[in-house]
Amino acid sequence: MTDDVETGPADGATHMGRTDKLPVRMLSDRLLVQLDGEAGDRRSSGGILIPATAQLGRRLTWAEVRACGPNVRAVQEGDHVLFNADDVAEVEVRGETFVMLRERDLHAVAAERLEEGHSGLYL
Question: What is the mean pLDDT of each run of 10 residues along the chain (123 residues)?
């Protein structure tokens, strides 16, 4: 048993759904990302306040990759990724809210390590 795992009750029973002290490992091509900034009001480059309720069509969202599954090929922890936030699954881990994605749902990757001319496309 590792130090990260909280022991259960003395009788050996466990609390259903209790994962706040367990280590988390992503599976397959899954990514755990944390949204950049707030999803509320925004400011344009000219300083105009754009309310969160304004309809701009489909708006893609940037997030920072916090964990990657073993089959993820084009992304590393710390990269910023662009994805459609309309159809995502949110999860709370240790009191923080994250979004769960598949690598194929990404539209772009932004990272200093990417070489010039490398498209970063998922094939």
Answer: 38 50 85 78 74 68 94 93 88 89 93 67 48
3-state percent breakdown (helix, strand, coil) of the chain, nearest 5: 5, 35, 60
Which amino acid, residue 118?
A: H
Q: Tell me, what amino acid is at 87?
A: D
CATH architecture label of 30-110:
Roll (2.30)
- Virtual torsion, Cα 60, 61, 64, 66, nearest 10 deg: -90
DSSP character at residue 115: P
Cβ-based neighbour number of residue 109 at 10 Å: 21
CA-CA-CA-CA dihedral for 45, 51, 55, 58, to nearest 10: 60
The DSSP result for 19-71, as a single string, is -TTS-----TTEEEEEESS-SS-EE-TTS-EE-TT---SS-EEEEEEEEE-TT
